[in-house]
Amino acid sequence: MKLDVLALDGVFDTGLSTVLDVFTTANELAAMLQLDVPPFQATVVGVRKRVRTAQGLAVPIARAVGTAPADWLVVPALGCKMPETLEPALSRADVRDACTALRASSESARLAAACIGTFVLAEAGLLDHHKATTTWWLATMFRQRYPAVQLEDSRMLVSSGHRVTAGAALSHVDMALWLVRQVSPELATLVARYLIVDSRPSQSAYVISDHLSHSDPLVERFERWARGRLADGFSLDEAALAAGASKRTLARRMQQVLGKSPLSYVQDLRVERAVHLLKTSDKSLEQIAGMVGYADGVTLRTLLRQRLGRGVREMRLEA
Description:
By secondary structure, this protein is an alpha/beta fold. It has helices at 13-32, 83-90, 93-105, 117-123, 139-145, 171-183, 185-195, 209-213, 217-227, 236-243, 247-258, 262-280, 285-291, 297-308; strands at residues 2-6, 41-46, 51-52, 58-59, 63-64, 72-75, 110-114, 131-132, 150-151, 157-160, 163-166. The chain has 2 domains: 2-205, Rossmann fold (3-Layer(aba) Sandwich), CATH 3.40.50; 208-312, Orthogonal Bundle (Arc Repressor Mutant, subunit A), CATH 1.10.10.
């Protein structure tokens, strides 16, 4: 498999290195174990001859992006973690040139991106009308900037057509392992074991809900009101009154900012609170269920497993 890995100025060091390390490890293990798997030929490409990482390290660019055939064109993240640095980065000349090159290459190569790299694909218009995921704490910005993308930001990996996107930061590992798995599931499992990487299908266990809500005043007011009433039943009428908006406006704004309904967000807050109590208190699951608005521990246990998946393995979910 031929893979072009696009390095833009200020590329996220860990993302770029992780992607390359996964492919190198796959090649080493395939040779050592004499697996009948074609090698992964990963080439670092760019739109400028000189590129430095976010930490200031020089990146050797083998050739310009799109100048040779590749099976996959992989876009690691830029080292921008917040909107105030990401917005100007997306307007840079080299990023615009990269978007042009990506559009031209999308006719022949499949596309993969992780973390902030998903913004570059979206900026090029290559995720329009496709399902995708992105960095969880920038999901609000992504949703507002690229409304044509069908964002599923709770997921760690999303495959749609000839595109695959991955969530935050170390999801670069998940993305690279997914690419290895397309060639050999056995080899991907071996690489994951050697690198000690667990399966992480969801980002939900890592999301800090109030961080997301603070991007919009109306949503923040609703979040403050909801946090103070997690043990009570949910009323959309009361929520809208407390937030100072109509029910329709509140629901629309929640969908625009967080991609979910007011009730779904309250459930997220309840899960977040329950997880905190499970980790930091000696209260039973039944007691915690009552504290976060559920009638019994069975309902809470089911919700925790649905929303957090394997991330609940170390919690006290005994009956």
